[in-house]
Amino acid sequence: MSQEKANEVRVTTLPERGPLDENGREILLSLKNVDITFGKGDSAVRAVQDATFDIYKGETFSLVGESGSGKTTVGRAVIRVNPLAAGEIRYKGVRISGKIPRSLDREVIRNIQMVFQDPAASLNERATVDYIISEGLYNFHLFKNEADRVQKVETMIEEVGLLPEHLTRYPHEFSGGQRQRIGIARAMVMEPELVVADEPISALDVSIRAQVLNLMKKFQEEKGLTYLFIAHDLSVVRFISDRIGVIYKGRIVEVAEAEELFNFPLHPYTHSLISAIPIPDPELEKNKVLFTYDPAAHDYSEDKPEFVCIGHDHYVYGNKKEIAEYKAIRDTNVPVKPITIRDPDAPEERGREDVAAAVREEEMLIHPAHDTGNIWYTILSFILPILGLIAMAVFNHFHHSRNAKACRRGAVAGLIFLAVIVAIFLLLLLLAVI
Asked: How far apart are the first and last CA of the chain?
């Protein structure tokens, strides 16, 4: 292992091509058992857990999940902003995570660029568009002379749908869609092979989104780009992706080709994401039954889960029992129906809504708004344990269970403390008499 690490340290440049998989596809980027942790000790947060997937050259690999699931964290780790706590990231078969030689680091920056989510925050408001786009060219000396630099920048600004006269302006003079085009131009002028697109259309109007997506698709076709596309809008992802990875609370739970994933959403979380896609018909949308994912449905106490391929290049996270069920569903070759439309005239369906409302009301009764279990209840009950016991009874009557527990802890501790004091006093008194 030490010899292998020594060989990796000596790698200072990237090869022309990456390794091939069993189907002859070139693996451009590979994540293996990646963990990303923020903070230390008890306050540490494990943002990404055991993330494993490959991205093939020339494809669009989309990473989808709800807000806070770890999508952007993975993207920032690929561009070497977020360090890894475990695992490794390889680009063209060369490890790029952790400490690497400076020459290799510069090649990685040159070959992997990022388009950020917020076009307003990612651009320097004090710099002209000309300097913003040229900054990478300056840093890596990617032009022969000033005329060559100007020609490259003007060509790129025209390719993203803007004009050369826009180069002398500042970012605040542009609309959101135009600023995003500037961000794309800044990345593309470096002629990268891999672009990490971090929700590049989420901050844009619906009418502008298609233009930006078409622009990115145009660059992919002309320059052979590979995209890691980070998003939460599955309706968009379906039509631009070759393969899709679904991430839940930092863990990759399913990876498959786009149509395969939408036809066979095997993991319950994927099922819930697809069921949340809005339906254009208002009547159908009103009667749509949302599938809610419940993590408690998994029992991983004994049968530990794994991320395995069930065939058809379809990977799912689950234990042996779940994997067998997923494989049985997939082997039927009958598409899974992720969206259910209820009959508005069916009384039993409305009854379910009433039951759900009753459950929510019961939960509110269990933990009312002011049932915080404040530490002051414990302190006051410790000082005045009898009053603390009375307060505990009152809180229990009004279903303030947390406050009641706080009072009980303080009162019990106070009574024990008083008992110890009395015992010591009696012992001293006994010793004095003797």
From this structure: 76
pLDDT tens-digit series, residues 391-417 = 888 888 777 878 888 888 899 999 999
Domain ranges, ordered by start, for the chain: 2-264, 375-433
Own/partner pairs, 358-363, CB within 8 angstroms, 24+ separation = none
pLDDT in tens, 70-81: 999 999 999 999
CATH class held by domain 2-264: alpha beta
**pLDDT by residue (tens digit) across 201-256?**
887 788 788 888 888 999 999 989 999 999 988 888 888 899 999 999 999 999 99
- C-alpha 192, offset from chain centre: 24
One-letter amino acid of 217: K
The C-alpha atoms of residue 130 and residue 116 are separated, in whole angstroms, by 19
Residues 6 or more apart from 388 whose CB is under 8 A from it?
377, 380, 381, 382, 407, 408, 410, 411, 414
Q: What is the pLDDT of residues 182-195, one digit of tens each?
A: 999 999 999 999 99
Amino acid in position 113: Q
Among the residue ranges 11-15, 34-38, 293-297, the one predicted with the least confidence is 11-15
Report the C-alpha gap between 204 and 417 in whole angstroms.
Answer: 63
